[in-house]
Specification:
Length: 392
């Protein structure tokens, strides 16, 4: 478990969370099914991994962020280079695409609905660069079954297709083929990832006290604060922070309620945001994320040059990072600012699988208590419709 420090929450709120868990987890949540990929999908992923030097992944939102979280775990030197393109700024997009040899590059297109305008735009923009007699062997599509534009393009041009589950929304799809397929190509241990998520699901089903209390903390903050800061003290958490930002905001920001998720990076933001966090409006709550790397590389001893460097003598970079994390945590607590800490002994597939499962459960339980549907995004759909109107 990674729950390190959790603030006080009233017993009544804990009981409400326990009741909600009992009801919700009796249902089969597709996003937490912990199903491994089929042998056919695994075979395709391994083929792509060994056939190409670069993998360009087109997609946006949940179709991209989940894969980015998992691929950030990879330290596999034999894996191909994986490039996620999740936006449509023309200069950056074309510069990135043209930098890669089309003969050595695969393109994976991910859109659950097969109708995502930005992803279709990316595909149409990239297509000419890969035109060749063997172009179909370079394109792979992940989408749900049905008569969508993406599925039609794939069928017309002979792209390989992987069907994604229709009952899992994009932002909840990290543990489905949407996230696991890129992860396999990157060399991620799928079994360890799903083991961690299954363990967390079981812990919440058993109503582990720490799980329940952390869930109650999250619910309490939605009532008392308008901003929730995800403050990570390791750059490996950056993709996960962006994934969580979408998960929380798009699932809970409805009917005039919800808190705004803010991603923040220690120690960088201590030199840009910390003044506001400590001395500005008391409208924020904080979740710290840290990992122990056990760095043994001692800093150069320069105390003979300047004794004011004595506090760094014999220390490692990790020791300074850990001290800054603790100092910031203590300062926030001293100011009576709500804070909790998720501390990890290592950053690996098992722990990340557990954290992903926990955060999805946290969002779903909070939505149930707030009485909003965590799986739709009606306001976003209005923007999509208006965009098509403008272009037509």
């Amino acid at each position: 478990m990674f729950f390190h420090d959790l603030p006080y929450v009233p017993d009544l709120l804990v009981q409400e969370v326990q009741g909600t868990l009992s009801t919700r987890l009796r249902q089969n949540l597709a996003c937490l099914s912990c199903r491994p990929l089929s042998s056919d999908i695994r075979t395709l992923a391994h083929s792509i991994r060994h056939q190409f030097e670069t993998i360009i992944i087109l997609g946006t939102g949940g179709s991209s962020l989940g894969g980015q979280v998992l691929c950030a775990l990879s330290h596999d030197q034999q894996a191909p280079r994986i490039v996620f393109l999740d936006e449509i700024h023309p200069d950056f997009f074309y510069r990135t695409v043209l930098a890669h040899d089309p003969e050595k590059t695969a393109v994976i297109v991910i859109s659950k609905s097969g109708t995502t305008a930005e992803t279709l735009c990316q595909l149409l923009a990239i297509f000419e660069h890969f035109l060749s007699p063997h172009a179909s062997k370079h394109f792979f599509v992940l989408t749900e079954e049905g008569n969508s534009p993406l599925r039609t393009l794939a069928d017309t041009y002979g792209f390989s297709c992987v069907t994604v589950p229709s009952d899992i929304g994009g932002r909840f799809s990290v543990l489905s083929p949407t996230g696991l397929f890129p992860a396999l190509i990157a060399g991620i241990n799928e079994a360890a990832l799903l083991k961690g998520s299954c363990q967390m699901l079981e812990n919440t089903r058993r109503q582990d006290p720490l799980c329940v209390k952390s869930l109650a903390v999250a619910v309490q903050w939605t009532y008392s604060k308008i901003n929730s800061v995800f403050l990570s003290y390791d750059t490996q958490f950056t993709p996960l922070s962006l994934w969580y930002r979408q998960l929380w905001a798009e699932s809970l920001g409805k009917n005039g309620i919800g808190t705004t998720p803010i991603t923040s990076q220690g120690t960088i933001d201590q030199h840009s945001q910390l003044q506001l966090y400590l001395d500005g409006p008391k409208d924020k709550a904080f979740t710290f994320l840290s990992v122990s790397k056990r760095d043994s590389r001692v800093l150069f001893d320069a105390t003979t040059v300047d004794v004011r460097l004595n506090y760094l003598n014999g220390k490692t970079m990790e020791e300074l990072l850990t001290a800054e994390c603790q100092a910031t945590y203590d300062a926030l607590q001293k100011q009576a600012i709500p804070v909790r800490h998720f501390a990890f002994p290592i950053f690996d597939e098992t722990y990340v699988g557990a954290l992903l499962a926990y955060l999805m459960i946290e969002v779903i339980v909070t939505a149930d208590i707030l009485r909003v549907n965590p799986f739709d995004q009606p306001a976003v759909e209005r923007i999509k419709s208006r965009t098509r109107e403008i272009l037509s």
